[in-house]
Known about the structure:
Elements: E1 4-7, H1 13-26, H2 38-46, E2 53-58, E3 64-72, E4 82-89, H3 98-112, E5 117-123, H4 127-135, E6 139-149, E7 155-164
Parallel strand pairs: 4-5
Antiparallel strand pairs: 1-2, 2-3, 3-4, 5-7, 6-7
Enzyme class: transferase
Protein name: GNAT family N-acetyltransferase
EC number: 2.3.1.183
Amino acid sequence: MPYTFHPAVESDIQAITDIYNAAVVAGGATADLTPRTLDQRRAWVESHTPPYGVFVVESEDGSIIGFGALSVFYDRAGYDGVTDLAYYIDPAWQGRGVGTFMLDRLLTEARARHMRKACGIIFADNVGSIALMRRFGFTQFGLMPAAATDSTGTMRDMSYWYLDL
């Protein structure tokens, strides 16, 4: 496999910030309306304490080409074991199997960390992420119309997906 996957470290935070901000500016993948600063992304990475985590995918040349996270689903103890997963791929690497590689590794990590459910909350018109959810056997459990805007000012429906681990 031409890609590698590992937990994010300090030296990855600039690439994580750049990839995320590309998604913010393009619209269609996040409800953040403005790019995040390096310090904001650093704080976000640091907030992911075990069993949660942030991970990166590297190309063969060692470049960070995507990142993903296992995050708290809902901050109440009864939801422990349920993770909200998210992933972002460098635009130059989209459509090259990085998302499939990333989601496979995130689910492996979730299982190794004894998660019982994984959830994905995505814009309902995000064709690539919807296809990945279906490919990995996620079930759609909800749709919230006109739930969020993106940086382009487009109002988007949110779709909610889960997978029993």
